[in-house]
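Now for our specimen.

. . .
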Amino acid sequence: MALRFRKYSWQLAPGSVRDIRQRVFIEEQQVPPELEWDDTDEIADHYLAVNENNHPVATARLFSALEETGYIGRMAVLPEARGTGVGEALLRHLMAESAGRYQELRLSAQEHATGFYQRCGFHICSPTPYDDAGIPHLDMRCLAPGLAHQVASGHKTPLVLGADKESWLFDQPSSFLDLMDSLVGQAGQRLWLYDHVLDHEFYDRHRLRELISALTRRHRLSEVRLLIHDDKPLVRRKHQLVELMRRLTSRIELRLVNEDYPTENRPFLLVDRQGVLSRHSFDKTEGFADFSAAHRARLMEESFQKMWDAARPSLELRELPL
C-alpha cells in the first residue's frame, strides 16, 4: 500500500485524526473518553497516514517531555487497513523523524502488540504488565532510533537482546555508543567490560551511568565487572562510572589486568550470556555487536574470566575521597 504521512499540531489537525482515535480506542477498545483525550495532545506532533486514494488510515502522536527522549503514543490503525503494513510504516516514519532529534524513544504498548514493536527495534523495559484504561500494557524503549529505522530486512527483531540474530557492524563512534547503550539497557543481571582504559568519551556519560545503575537495581544478584589496563586517567579526572562503583561496591567492581599473564588485544563488552560488543582494536571505533550470540559470548567469557582471576584491585581508586 502506497502511503503518505502528514504532520500537524493539535490545533491544525484535520478531524480524521480525532475520528480514527474515536473509532479505534473509544468505540472498539472501550477506552473512556476522559482518558483518551488529554493535555498531551496540545504539545504533541500528530501524524496522519493516508493511502493512495488520499483516505486517512492511521494516526499517532509524538512528543517530548525531556529533550533527549521522545514518546510515541495514541497509535491507531483503522480495522480495514490492518495487516497491510500500515502500522509498521507509520512507526518507522516516526522513528525516522526522531533520528538525530532524540537519543531514545519510549512508548506504552498493549501487551498483545509488543511483538509488533520489537520487530521495529523496541524492547520491553517494565518488569510486569500494568493496567491502562482496562488494558494490560508494557513499557518499551528504543535506545538507538537512528540505527533501528535504517535496519536491513534481515533483522527481524532489531536490537532486541536474545532475539536479534544478525550481527551489527559499526565504524563510527555514534553507532558504537548506540549499540553499547542498547545492549547495556537490556542487561538482566550481568555486565562485563574489558578495555585498555575507561575512555571518557565512551564511558564517562550520564546515560551509560544511569543504564548501569538501573541494572544494579533490577536484579539483587546483578554483577558489573570493569577490567582495564590503566587506571591513571581515572585518578586524574573524575569519572561517572567510578563514582557509581564506589557507591555500589557490592555490585560493581573494577580490577587492573596482570600484564604478566596473557591478555586480549581488543576491547569487548559482554551482556548476560548472549550480548557481545567488540572493537577490532583499543584505538579504533570499528567492530561488531551481537544481540543473540551465546556461543561467541561463552568463548569471550572464558577469556575474560582468566584475565579477571589474575587481575588486582586498583588501590589508587580505593583511596580517592568520595
